[in-house]
Amino acid sequence: MPSTPADGPAARTENQEDGGGSTSSRSKNAFDMLMAPKPKPKSPPKHSYASTSMRHIAHGADGLGVYLLHPETFPSHRVVSYSPDFVVVNDRYPKSSVHLLLLPRSPAYSAQHPFDALQDPAFLSSVRGEVEKLRDLVARELQRRFGAESKSEARRQAVLDGEAEPEEGEEGEELPPGRDWKAEVIAGIHARPSMNHLHIHVLSREMHSSCLKHRKHYNSFNTPFLVDVADFPLAADDPRLHPGREQYLRKDLTCWRCGRNFGNRFKALKEHLEDEFEAWKQE
User: Fold this and answer.
1) Considering 99, 199, 201, 217, which one is annotated as catalytic?
2) In this predicted model, what pLDDT tens digit does every residue of 19-30 receive, in sequence order?
3) Is 199 a catalytic residue?
4) 3-state SS of the chain?
5) Could you tell me which CATH class the domain 94-281 is placed in?
6) How does pLDDT run across 69-127, given as a tens digit for each residue?
7) Of 62, 71, 94, 147, which cross-links 153 as Cys (Cβ 3.0–4.6 Å)?
8) CA-only gyration radius of the chain, Å
């Protein structure tokens, strides 16, 4: 696997998730075609990612819409998987080591604010099911990337390497369980989405990324601004329905791991997160 919401859909924050990607290798480059010594160069395929209409919606707040119509035209490092109902993409500006976006394809839901769409019991149930699958996927990727450095993985890795015997379980020999990487995954929507198409974030919790650049980025994933899909449907008096009033994005910066308060000193937090990342990997 590669490297997977403040009040109302019209509002915006500086936390832009994904603004589209570069032209797929499976699509012809329009400029190269124009310059080629051919009397009648072919146009890009009608539904190619390289087509003018697709490029047009690949920017700004509508950038996620480009993935919904023809996800099959994108490379695997951009679109992780797709079905008739959902598309899973790698966030173009990830805020953690692994950061996926789950996109519903139906316009009946994709054009709604998540607070409204997730009031639908059937849709909420389907989203929860997909999120659970992605939690497993992200957990496996974390284990693949960082398992060799984790103390909790040492016994399991020793068995895999033939340096220790497997454990005896009810059904015979079993691998030691290793680290619970799924506990390192968070998932939810932003109370005030920065993109127009509904999307659910599923990401590792360590907040280690060069794309994490300011306080709003960090607080959008480490305050109630990120609403867990497990909390829906929200009660009418839930304060998260009014993120602007609650000022979540302006709250003090607090380390997700140790709880240290950095006030508004983002640079200091960022440096601290580097140390926490190394310690987190070794747990």
Assistant:
1) 199
2) 444 434 444 444
3) yes
4) CCCCCCCCCCCCCCCCCCCCCCCCCCCCCHHHHHHCCCCCCCCCCCCCCCCHHHHHCCCHHHHHHHHHHCHHHCCCCCEEEECCCEEEEECCCCCCCCEEEEEECCHHHHCCCHHHHCCCHHHHHHHHHHHHHHHHHHHHHHHHHHHHHCHHHHHHHHHHCCCCCCEEECCEEECCCCCCHHHHEEEEEECCCCCCCCCEEEEECCCCCCCCCCHHHHHHHHCCCEECHHHCCCCCCCHHHCHHHHCHHHCCCECCCCCCECCCCHHHHHHHHHHHHHHHHCC
5) alpha beta
6) 999 999 999 999 999 999 999 999 999 999 999 999 999 999 999 999 999 999 999 99
7) 147
8) 21
Q: What dihedral do alpha carbons 69, 24, 98, 86 form, nearest 10°?
A: 10
